[in-house]
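Many introductory courses stop at the sequence. We go one step further.
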Amino acid sequence: MTTDPQNFPLARRLPERGAPFDSGSLLDLFLEYVTEKGLTLYPAQEEAILALYEGQNVILNTPTGSGKSLVATALHFHSLAHGRRSYYTCPIKALVNEKFLALCQDFGPDHVGMVTGDATVNGNAPIICCTAEILSNLSLREGARAPVDDVIMDEFHYYSDRERGVAWQVPFLTLPKARFMLMSATLGDMSFFEAELTKRTSRDTAYVRSVDRPVPLTFVYQETPLHETVQDLVKTGKAPVYLVCFTQREAAEEAQNLLSVELCTKEDKQRIAAALEGVRFTSLFGKDVQKLVKHGVGLHHAGLLPRYRLLVERLAQKGLLKVICGTDTLGVGVNIPIRTVLFTKLCKYDGEKTGLLSVRDFQQIAGRAGRKGFDDQGLVVAQAPEHVIENLRMEQKALSDPKKAKKMVRKKPPEKGFVMWTKDTFEKLISSAPEPLQSRFSVSHGMLLNVISRPGKPGESCAAMRQLIRDSHDTPVAKQRHGKLAFQMFRSLATRGIIEFVDEGAKKKGLRVNLNLQDDFSLHHALSLYLVDTVKLCDPYSPSYALDIVTLAEAIIENPDLILRKQLDVVKTRRMFEMKAEGIEYDERIAELEKLEYPKPNREFIYESFNQFAAKHPWIGQENIRPKSIAREMYENFMSFQEYVREYELQRSEGLLLRYLSEVYKVVVQTVPSAAKDEEMESIVAYFGGIVRQVDSTLLDEWEKLRNPGARTSAPAAEDPDADMEKREKLDITKNPREFTILVRNEVFQYVKFLSWGRIDLLGEHVRDADALPALTPDQLKERLATYHEDHRGPLLDRTARHTQHLKVETDAENAELWNLTQTLLDEDGHNDWCLELTADLAASRAAGRAVVRLRDFRAI
């Protein structure tokens, strides 16, 4: 099915296939589009677009809000008209999603695709929106043969990012036939990149710079308490205010504090309430988000579920929020109109130490102030340090009361996580030029595999890897180090058979990735090779084999510190109660608590095997193994996402848990060799795949709506951001029988678990669909449970649903949309003479986006 190009302003302006046109006529067509949108090009936009239409590379260094996205659209239009393929890249998935949908509106969904690593939509389209890592991996795999003609790299200052900067450098080094457009508001000196682009692509490069902002900024250094500053800004018409915090916790706390500040009028609250009609806040943190947005306060950080971030963005775009409390990542291009940027601090922890903000970070965030078309000026406010503000207040009071002056005890700055700043610091950040961009090139197993998998003549891949290192932007000393590391990694891959030599005769020898590995095999993590090695040491006949592999997968993933701290808190609390009951003295209890750790299954095996691995592989360097049990714990206990959040009070960090589970899922799918996956392992893959895919279907729904405006999707409308696991899933969750069976088993286990606890009341809380309400009343269930206990010594065992042999699944003879389930219940005596009878409703499950399972009976066999 295709869409009518006449419905999309740039699609209908494309020259007909085969019709003659030149750059001048194509430019006229694009300018018609600009006029239709009611826009007038700025001089910098005109200069950049003309350079692009003359075939040049462009470096566009202009302030936030000066229309860089329009120039990028001009390049997409030029590329599409010439039958070329253009890629738009940026650092964060939220911005990729936003640009994808915006380009769909202009070019039509048939012409636009998106790839983020989590989702692929229309991946063969001539216009692709993707994260920088996606383009980097493509260019490594394909080199100069990559089907990439034009590259737009938005927020190019990420080239200096410690962890991700290599992804912004690799396309430079591997795509000599492509034309590049680099964009950012904070690039600094770009003379090196100007010369480098010209040399590598054999195209002229235009460096377009401007400091003229459509909405000029004013700067204020504030020495009043934060809540007073915010209240004053709102009262004087300076809202919406972006309250900049540097941790998720600070953002949540400041948002909560603002509930005591009156920000909205009665009319404002009525408009917000109208905008929230039909939106459900069904996750555990949802009620908090609802309370905040009703008060005119938005919360935006990576710890939130995607739907809540999207909700805040949409409310802000409608002008309904007075304050948005967000982390500094909100400064990266996401479309939230802001009039005032308010820095709570001018220092932050960068992952290694706390230091003052860099000029680039400050200016990037400050540049968000000022709404084009709404504001004559944007305002940037920086709060003085909290202890300085308190001391000033005490000094003012002391002036009117000499007795207070004698008693005054000056507040001291925090001892940890703080670096002092002053008004002079603020002024230097305003006036200084951004720091030069710094190369972050690095070698990894993933890079080697991508390069080795290139199609071509034998021996080309090794030469390509050497050339890649030689061409990198690092110093000669660093290049030598990269070369040595690459050889060590190459030898490790060859020893394990992950790459293999190919002898084609006549002295033609080459390399290739082992054909026996799964198609999407990946060594994305630094310690992926350790996982591949150590999986072979696990006993496939052990009852815990599949779970042990999950533990190995978790051990190579970065620690989600907040979740692990919560786990440790629970471990300590339980142990404290035990020691109290045992009569252990307080000092001994405290000493014992200090020795405790969060759960680390197989810790001795993991540490020992890693030490042996590290001794053989010097390239590991400072990398270390990180045993933990989050995904394993969820699966062992068949906990739902919500249950795990509730268990560890992760309401403010639901998004963190979601990302972690997504990472575990990808490692298990892509890095654990297929040969190591038994039936239970496949069940685990389906279990986590089901959880991850049910979280948010908004993007796919919006794309489907664009493709077929008159169709009714099975998910909520695009205007409703509440598309979560609680809502209807666009993808048919019953389509994959194995995965759906896992979801059904999980629902059955919830019934077993609550009955084993004797918590009949929790069944009603768990069931969210009228179709799934138990056929038995709560009183009937209690009677059956009492009868069960008359014949059995202990409780029924909640490990029942852990084993597939105890669950019988049959398709209903009269209705193929129903599965009849019989769950045998285990007891301590091994009689196993009771069962649950249930029904899985496939049609209701598709509509709900989750397995809908109804309890029909609880009886003796």
